[in-house]
Recover the amino acids of this structure.
């Protein structure tokens, strides 16, 4: 293992050295229209954490329908989608870690969901693209400011009111009945600024019963006082209705092939109703089943600058309500859920002590709460289920120390504490009150060395501490009796432990004047008490609770380049290699022992393409995406209510996409996209085929 790691380090640096071919002397363009620009400063005097930005500008790159679409081409990010138009089960992984192992923030505050039933760790469709200005990505647990993370941080920064009033109206139409209508308006009046947006989105769906109907609204207000302090108030609301994917796998033909039940849709697996503590076991959804969900986010922040820095205090609250229907099921199902009722506040200070030291420190308190749920199997039968709270508290301090003109050192220390307790109690097994607590110190060290004006290197070693989510705690604790989980032979109670360990990274960034830039880095994560839990399959069976494995390791290489081939033509490419290894006692989930690697982690991933900008302003992007084969879990019913989970392999695939944006005049533009130009047959999630060639066209007017 360590031999392989050293070989990858040498190979990565060698590859970077080879990629140095001179091009032209003009600036590398930073497109301002509908392109996704992944910016990572080649030389940064104040960024030892090596933050990358996905700069969306005017956000509508091709057919992108949610933020997960924007992240597909980023090195070190894996996106798994099952269907079109932003499915709630789109999965984003940062360096191989799913969203419960990294933090998703909206203007610096968390938006990860907490629900145990009907919720998801992160529903990327709850943040409208049109409110996004850029996305900051910190890979790895480098920053002391952000706790409870292993993979890093994705911080989504929304747009603010502009000094000059502006309005945009946009329409888009695409394959499978996709259409959207957007409106936004921003402006200011002296010290007051505002940003308003509204939109609708709908699609017939590529898979059976998987239609989409969504509406969203958001308002962001800002006011600057005479003291230069700024008060910001925001509220956003997303209302979504979506049909559950219904299994379209009919009778067996011969030994292997199947035919579709409904020939209008492809053969595919379906969604599975997760078991309710007061309801039935896991089962498939029926035709006509659907869910409705309303997500409302509230936030309030005040920032006050002072002579040597600034301080900020902020508060947020999430309110998610969801209803599920299966009117043709046996039995019929109606569930009321409140998957996310979280809230939090934080105070932070940034201050420059002198020419060499810039410090930041703060206090954060989060209450992750998923609220109650009720299950109705008949009009007269109700099963109320309990709620629990997971309270996390964090205190941190960081020092950005300019040791000398060439060396920048970031030293950080973070203290985390968590407390889990029951919020609402019922009778029977649910009356038990787990009062679980834990705490940890996490030191951080990040070093950046400027070799010369064109090249810098960086190194980091950081301790991480990841508290189990409310959902993991719940399913570990749920089963009746005196043990945690369905542990055989009366084995003593074993409560989930937090994940902890160390993350290492080394890298180099360089440029050739203003003609090209290159970046390479290697990372290694050593994880103790790795939690085994698959939110898409294992949680649907009572018999398989989450539990701790002894050890897991994740390591890899990321290579990136952007080169200007001509004054108006740019070549871009990135490559990600990632590996994993886990070990421990697999007796609670035998499917985990079928491979020593972590599921859903492709070993190879690459993006390559060309961006062309004509003098008249038209832009064309032709890009290809490669994803190597990967081990996945495949869940299928072997009886009316029993899931069989087994290892499966998703084959590799390469798809080619085209984007064209053309300005009609100074305030109007049209866009056109073709995805999967060569009609490649592939799957990103096992059992859910992706569509072939798809098309779309958009029109936008600004005034």
């Amino acid at each position: 293992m360590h031999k392989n790691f050293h070989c990858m380090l040498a190979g990565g640096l060698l590859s970077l050295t080879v990629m140095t071919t001179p091009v032209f002397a003009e600036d590398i363009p930073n497109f301002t229209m509908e392109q996704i620009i992944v910016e990572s400063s080649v030389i940064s005097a104040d960024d030892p954490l090596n933050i990358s930005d996905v700069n969306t500008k005017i956000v509508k790159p091709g057919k992108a329908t949610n933020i997960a679409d924007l992240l597909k081409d980023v090195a070190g990010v894996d996106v798994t989608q099952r269907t079109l138009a932003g499915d709630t089960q789109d999965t984003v992984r940062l360096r191989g870690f799913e969203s419960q192992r990294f933090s998703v923030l909206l203007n610096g505050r968390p938006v990860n969901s907490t629900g145990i039933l009907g919720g998801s760790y992160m529903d990327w469709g709850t943040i409208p693209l049109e409110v996004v200005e850029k996305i900051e990505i910190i890979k790895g647990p480098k920053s002391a400011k952000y706790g409870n993370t292993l993979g890093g941080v994705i911080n989504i920064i929304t747009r603010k009111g502009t000094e000059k009033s502006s309005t945009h109206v946009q329409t888009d139409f695409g394959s499978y009945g996709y259409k959207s209508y957007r409106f936004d308006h921003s402006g200011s009046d002296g010290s007051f600024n505002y940003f308003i947006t509204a939109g609708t989105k709908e699609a017939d769906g590529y898979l059976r019963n998987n239609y989409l109907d969504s509406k969203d609204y958001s308002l962001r207000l800002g006011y600057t006082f005479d003291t230069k302090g700024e008060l910001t108030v925001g509220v956003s609301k997303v209302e979504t209705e979506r049909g559950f994917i219904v299994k379209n796998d009919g009778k067996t033909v011969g030994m292997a092939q199947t035919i579709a039940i409904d020939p209008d849709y492809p053969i595919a697996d379906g969604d599975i109703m997760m078991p309710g503590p007061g309801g039935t076991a896991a089962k498939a959804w029926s035709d006509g089943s659907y869910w409705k969900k309303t997500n409302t986010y509230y936030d309030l922040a005040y920032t006050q600058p002072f002579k040597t820095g600034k301080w900020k205090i902020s508060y947020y609250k999430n309110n998610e309500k969801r209803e599920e229907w299966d009117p043709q099921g046996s039995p019929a199902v109606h569930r009321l859920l409140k998957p996310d009722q979280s809230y939090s506040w934080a105070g932070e200070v940034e201050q420059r002590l002198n020419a060499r030291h810039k410090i930041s420190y703060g206090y954060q308190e989060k209450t992750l709460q998923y609220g109650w749920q009720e299950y109705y199997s008949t009009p007269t039968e109700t099963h109320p289920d309990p709620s629990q709270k997971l309270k996390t508290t964090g205190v941190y301090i960081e020092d950005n120390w300019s040791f000398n003109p060439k060396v920048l050192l970031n030293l950080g220390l973070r203290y985390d504490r968590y407390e889990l307790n029951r919020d609402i109690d019922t009778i029977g097994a649910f009356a038990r009150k787990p009062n679980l607590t834990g705490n940890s110190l996490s030191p951080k060290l990040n070093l950046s060395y400027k070799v010369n004006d064109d090249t810098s290197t960086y190194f980091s070693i950081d301790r991480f501490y990841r508290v189990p989510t409310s959902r993991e705690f719940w399913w570990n604790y749920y089963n009746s009796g005196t043990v945690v989980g369905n542990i055989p032979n009366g084995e003593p109670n074993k409560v989930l432990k937090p994940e902890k360990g160390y993350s290492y990274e080394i890298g180099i960034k360089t440029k050739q004047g203003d003609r090209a830039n290159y970046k390479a880095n290697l990372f290694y994560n050593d994880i103790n008490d790795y939690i085994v839990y698959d939110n898409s399959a294992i949680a649907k069976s009572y018999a398989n609770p989450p539990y701790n494995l002894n050890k897991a390791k994740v390591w890899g290489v990321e290579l990136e380049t952007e080169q200007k081939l001509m004054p108006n033509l740019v070549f871009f490419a990135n490559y990600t290699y990632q590996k994993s290894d886990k070990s421990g006692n697999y007796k609670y989930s035998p499917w985990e022992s079928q491979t020593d690697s972590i599921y859903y982690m492709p070993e190879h991933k690459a993006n390559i393409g060309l961006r062309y900008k004509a003098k008249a302003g038209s832009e064309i992007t032709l890009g290809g995406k490669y994803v190597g084969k990967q081990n996945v879990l495949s869940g299928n019913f072997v009886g009316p209510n029993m899931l069989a989970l087994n290892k499966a392999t998703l084959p590799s695939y390469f798809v080619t996409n085209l984007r064209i944006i053309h300005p009609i005049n100074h305030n109007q533009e049209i866009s056109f996209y073709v995805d999967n130009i060569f009609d490649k047959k592939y799957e990103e999630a096992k059992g859910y085929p992706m569509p072939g060639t798809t098309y779309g066209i958009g029109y936008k007017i600004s005034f």
